[in-house]
Design a protein that fits this description.
Two copies of one chain form a homodimer.
Chain A (H helix, E strand, L loop, with lengths): L5 H11 L6 H13 L2 H17 L1 E2 L6 E2 L5 H4 L4 E8 L2 H10 L4 E5 L17 H7 L7 E4 L5 H13 L6 E4 L15 H9 L6
Helix pairs in contact in A: 1-2
């Protein structure tokens, strides 16, 4: 025996593809599962099965939810004329936690990454264009990350909408709250300078 | 919505307990699974189920295998008089890969860690004592890690066997092959010095 049984090898290989798990931690995970009793393992299997069966993608904003449309899209008190465009469902939660935003969302399901073969047609961009066709939308906030992929995707969508009267905004770039100017990187500081706001 | 649906929260909490996955990577893992199609997810579930059903623990050495006893214990060509005692099944594979060792193994299933409530009676130590009762065993190699837990466990087993004629050895401690003395830590260097071997 100088290699693991097939069942273990397959699962190590599968887990290695999960985000945040390398080959070594995938191996540790398999042995962790082997140490669990049947009941714990059945619970995990049950949870994974439920995940796929119970969690739905909202037809309107493509956020995840147990309902379709999702509670945000169904909420009459939300401002339907403002759409916050984000990359992933996780981003929606982050915005909701600020308790500041009253508009609706549009989840792209990723960002344009040519190197990883993620092209615009794999994202929910045409669905966004479709959604604003009725001219009810006043503002689109392109809330993608301030990095290469996020900026590329934002620029791509901006370009597509250049002849559409809708207002398009990006989140402010600047110093994070609580940070120290001394340790700020130059690009952030330069953005903070460009975006400086009058206080008096 | 300022928190995830219950199904997602439960699975994030479960995955957080897996080795190498923190709360943030557990979250990413759940969203990774949500993006998979039904077939991939069924495959994962199937693989986890198979893992528990097909993988057995060898009655003799407590290594994992698809057979019980495991191929190593069944192999007539192996030297049954030498037992290499290791903490985990993963360690067996590492020894087998050296292609040097011809004896058999004994997997403890962990190391003594009082802080984590792992006491000697949870390890396969009494099974080891039972196994050497027939006096066929000539040497026990205590191949636990050269760290606090590994040394503690080795010392504990050595103490238990102090009146038994069996020879007990530990792996050599010294400089790793390919390393630089300049960067060796003092404890390793001091071990290497103590264990120095005559070459002429």
């Amino acid at each position: 025996m100088n290699q693991y049984p097939e069942q273990i090898k397959i699962l190590i290989e599968k887990f290695s593809r999960w985000p945040g798990l390398g080959p070594k931690s995938a191996e540790r995970t398999v042995f962790y599962l082997l140490k669990q009793n049947k009941q714990s393992l059945d619970e995990i299997i049950n949870n994974i099965t439920k995940l796929k069966n119970d969690i739905k993608i909202c037809d309107q904003c493509f956020n995840i939810s147990t309902n379709n449309p999702c509670p945000i899209c169904q909420d009459q008190k939300r401002d339907n004329s403002t759409i916050c465009v984000v990359a992933e469902p996780q981003d929606v939660l982050v915005f909701e936690k600020t308790d500041e935003y009253r508009g609706v969302y549009h989840v792209l399901g990723g960002l344009i990454m040519p190197a990883q073969n993620i092209t615009p047609d794999q994202l929910k961009i045409k669905e966004l264009l479709e959604r604003i066709k009725d001219n009810q939308t006043k503002e689109i906030i392109l809330a993608t990350n301030p990095d290469l992929e996020g900026e590329t995707t934002a620029m791509y969508i901006t370009e597509l909408l250049k002849n559409n009267p809708v207002k398009i905004t990006r989140l402010a770039k600047g110093l994070p709250i609580g940070s120290t100017i001394e340790y700020a990187d130059e690009i952030t500081l330069s953005s903070a300078l460009k975006g400086r706001q009058q206080v008096k």
